[in-house]
Amino acid sequence: MMNRFAQTVTERHLSLRRSRPEILQINVGKLCNLVCVHCHVNAGPKRKEIMTRETIDRIIDWLAKTDIRTVDLTGGAPEMIPDFRYFIERVKELRSPRHVIDRCNLTILLEHGYKGLARFLAKRKVEIIASMPCYSAENVNAQRGDGVFEGSIVALQLLNSLGYGIDADLPLQLIYNPVGAFLPPSQGELEAVYKRELQKHFGIVFNRLYTLTNLPIGRFAAYLRHNDRLDEYMQLLIEAFNPATIEGLMCRNTISVGWRGEVYDCDFNQQLGMQWNNGQPIFLWDVNPDSLENREIMTGDHCFGCTAGAGSTCGGAIM
Ligand code: SF4
Ligand code: SF4
Fold this sequence. Notes:
With 319 residues, the chain is an alpha/beta fold. It has helices spanning 4-11, 53-64, 84-93, 117-123, 137-144, 148-161, 187-202, 218-226, 230-239, 267-271, 304-307, and strands spanning 23-27, 70-74, 99-104, 127-131, 172-176, 208-211, 254-257, 263-264. Strand 2, helix 3 and strand 3 form a beta-alpha-beta unit.
């Protein structure tokens, strides 16, 4: 049976298929120093799933044969896997240049044992996309834990001092996601407020603010269910379906890889275990990147989170 999302796409005579892969998004594991309320990965300090060096080497060998330009590292806190720096060094050593993104929770940059990490990232010109769900302490600490706001501010100041958000080759983007069961406000307007407030109170500068919609999976779904708001939130997403977002969905040009090298259409599908399969589970090294155009995308009801309102991707709003 077709899920409600696939049904909606069909009814509207839309088509959701892959284009050429441009981004390899790698979720290196579920280990994290934080335990955020909205986390769709259920990440935390006790998780054991992390990528090994052997898997990293296989990914690098595969990547070297492709023209995929961007490697987007996520987690968990991707910096916490033992071979995080090794991974970046190897990508940067490839003959054709690749852009690397680190999806960073900021506080990890200040943790014991991670000194020099920010400097390492700056030296390798790694773009930083950092979660910062609000510009005020109260909201951030409620969603991410006590003291996370204060730590994030210090980390942003450290990044600015290294040139992040200032030098053209050291981009620093922030991510906003709602603290409850509602859609994000206008990205452009919120960006202006963030810029004004962070500059005024903390002297912090950054490039872009990306607004993300929380998808009803993982810890966020549990949180909604606990508060008896899951159905209501799902309905909100369905009613806000915007057909114009389909074209810009990240599952069209991104390949999502898990900590064992397994492949998915996006990080959300990854958390739901919707691995690619051709009778057998598919790993990155089984994939021919030139054969992906027009491949069908595996969807589910959670996809309504990406198509609601202005749309939502790992690079922010679509519209
Ligand atoms: S949302 Fe990010 S920082 Fe928070 S627990 Fe999940 S992976 Fe860690
Ligand atoms: S959840 Fe994944 S597959 Fe579904 S629309 Fe969003 S990016 Fe695409």
